[in-house]
Design a protein that fits this description.
Number of domains: 2
CATH class of the largest domain: Alpha Beta
Number of strands: 6
Distance between the termini: 32 Å
Order of helices and strands: HHHHEHEHEEEEHHHHHHH
Helix content: 55-70%
CATH architecture of the largest domain: Roll
Shape: globular
Length: about 270
């Protein structure tokens, strides 16, 4: 699975099949997962939606019809009862259970819409992933967790709730995310869940795949090094922490705490040798 994912990631971004890559992330957890079968589920959902969506000419009408199909007829909704269930980050479970978190619901929604020729894309809005219709003269925002449209004013209000009254919405907040950005965000969500559960083996698997996409991301190298440390894998822990420190300014306050681990790691590695 890991090598298949690497093959997708290392190819041209324009050819990266987001649904397939998301299912490859899930297949590492569920070895018997049939990726082609779940891609077929998305195809079938698109076929079911086609009659009510494709004949409509106005973008607003298309989005209303797609929302009706996805959120009402098919019952996709945000998992408010158990938001931090790791299953919410696995696309196969989202398709089976019709529930998930914003980003995986957005993947399902956009995959169906794009199969119908509707230009809908995921948006990495801070704290809460969104969907955006991107037309030549109109943009429409959808919250895939709550199943409703959003205005730019409502998005700005969300920013103020998170960052304070001085926060202002800019276009970067609402730009379409790339497939790689979406995959990294899915994996970071999973990583955070597994860290909270102190499941270091699964945390490490998430970090390995994030670093497959972003090989020189300092914070992820640091986190992988610390995860190796918790697993008492001292040689790779030392390697990642040294790489993190090489990429981090020497006066960085966070780096100082990590640097303090170096003597212990060096001793542990010498003892292994």
């Amino acid at each position: 699975m890991r090598e298949r994912l690497r093959f997708l990631i290392e190819g041209p971004e324009s050819n990266l099949n987001l649904a397939q890559a998301a299912l490859l992330i899930a297949k590492e957890e569920y070895a018997h997962l049939d990726i082609d079968a779940y891609l077929g589920v998305l195809d079938e959902l698109a076929r079911s939606a086609a009659n009510r969506v494709v004949s409509l000419r106005e973008p607003s009408d298309q989005i209303d019809a797609l929302n009706q199909f996805f959120f009402v007829d098919q019952g996709f909704n945000g998992n408010r009862a158990n938001y931090y269930d790791p299953a919410n980050s696995y696309l196969n479970h989202v398709l089976d259970r019709r529930t998930g978190i914003p980003i995986t619901l957005a993947v399902a929604y956009t995959e169906i819409g794009q199969r119908l020729g509707i230009p809908v894309f995921g948006v990495g809005f801070p704290g809460h992933f969104l969907v955006k219709y991107v037309g030549t003269s109109e943009e429409i925002l959808v919250d895939p967790f709550f199943g409703n449209r959003l205005t730019a004013e409502q998005c700005e209000e969300r920013l103020r709730t998170m960052y304070g009254p001085q926060a202002r919405l800019d276009q970067n907040h609402l730009r379409p995310a790339t497939a790689k950005e979406i995959l990294v965000r899915i994996l970071r969500n999973l990583k955070n869940v597994y860290v909270q559960r102190e499941d270091w083996v699964r945390t490490l698997a998430c970090l390995d795949r994030i670093l497959m996409i972003l090989p020189d991301e300092p914070e992820e190298l640091r986190d992988r090094g610390l995860t190796y440390y918790r697993l008492e894998c001292f040689a790779p822990a030392l390697r990642d922490i040294e790489s993190y420190l090489d990429l981090t300014p020497k006066d960085d306050e966070g780096a100082a705490a990590v640097r303090s681990l170096l003597p212990e790691l060096l001793r542990a590695v010498r003892q292994l040798n």
